[in-house]
Design brief:
Length: 281
């Protein structure tokens, strides 16, 4: 029968070993990014001073840190490279946000600094993680490697989820009108500025704005065109011209559509440039 004293000693010993393990920078990374470690190996190259017994970080494994913010290291909020830019899934908004090379570099730098601060001790020299291994010159190679490791085809965002309308509060299935939560599996960069509310009506839009200015067939056309605008794709390959007298509600109609679709999702066709091939394209 073990005495309480021996049990306490054993517990303390296990905790000490665990703490000591966390003081190792290699273990610090491999425990947090196990799948990246399994694919790309140890994150750091370290050396041991035979005299002082101090281990020093010497070099980064570029492949490890190029993949650390991809789907292996951050499966719930991955970063990909497509169409010449990095895109990171935003768990708060549910869409992919474009980020600069510098922004990704800053995230890797912050990760290296965090490790250095948490494992710093008498038996390990992590100064390189704070300085020469985390500067822009050194990390530029990691960013270049990340563009290859995290690359997706240019079609990554092309109509990947045509069966859904991305609303402000989730993904609306067009077929059964079911609202589903956002997920990184939906490859979307934009969403509507309004929530989907089952059964909601729009009496002011139909009755006041359109009803006072248009005939029934025109109201039907405006409503159907507005519905197509929510899809983010001009399926009919047509444009809608709003014509009428001053103060007739044309601008109000357009502003209402912008409010639903979202200003960030609106583009402009410059009529004075219609003769140019790229403007038409």
């Amino acid at each position: 029968m073990k005495s309480p004293k021996s049990e306490k000693t054993k517990t303390v010993s296990l905790e000490a070993k665990k703490k000591a393990k966390l003081k190792d920078p290699i273990s610090w990374f491999t425990q947090r990014f196990k799948d990246v470690y399994d694919r790309h190996g140890v994150p750091l190259d370290m050396s041991l001073n035979a005299t002082t017994k101090v281990r020093k970080v010497m070099q980064l494994n570029d492949a490890f840190f190029a993949a650390v913010f991809g789907e292996l290291g951050c499966p719930d909020a991955p970063t990909y490279y497509t169409q010449g830019s990095f895109y990171r899934y935003n768990t708060d908004s549910g869409i992919y946000d474009r980020i600069s090379d510098g922004a990704l570099e800053a995230r890797i730098c912050a990760l290296l600094h965090r490790c250095a601060k948490e494992v710093n001790g008498k038996k390990v020299d992590v100064a390189p993680l704070m300085f020469n291994l985390s500067n822009s010159t050194r990390l530029s190679g990691v960013i270049k490697r990340a563009k290859a490791f995290l690359e997706k085809p240019d079609t990554f965002f092309d109509n990947a989820d045509a069966a859904f309308i991305p609303c402000n509060n989730g993904m609306l299935s067009i077929e059964d009108r079911e609202l589903l939560p956002f997920s990184q599996s939906y490859h979307i960069r934009n969403k509507l500025d309004v929530d989907y509310v089952p059964g909601a009506k729009c009496p002011l839009f139909l009755g006041k704005l359109l009803g006072d200015a248009l005939e029934l067939d025109q109201i039907n056309l405006a409503q159907r065109w507005s519905g197509m605008a929510l899809l983010g794709e001009n399926i009919d390959h047509r444009i809608l011209l709003t014509m009428g007298t001053s103060g007739g509600g044309k601008s109000t109609f357009i502003n209402a559509m912008i409010g639903v679709i979202g200003q960030s999702n609106i583009g402009e066709l410059r009529t004075d440039q219609l003769f140019a091939r790229f403007e038409l394209g």
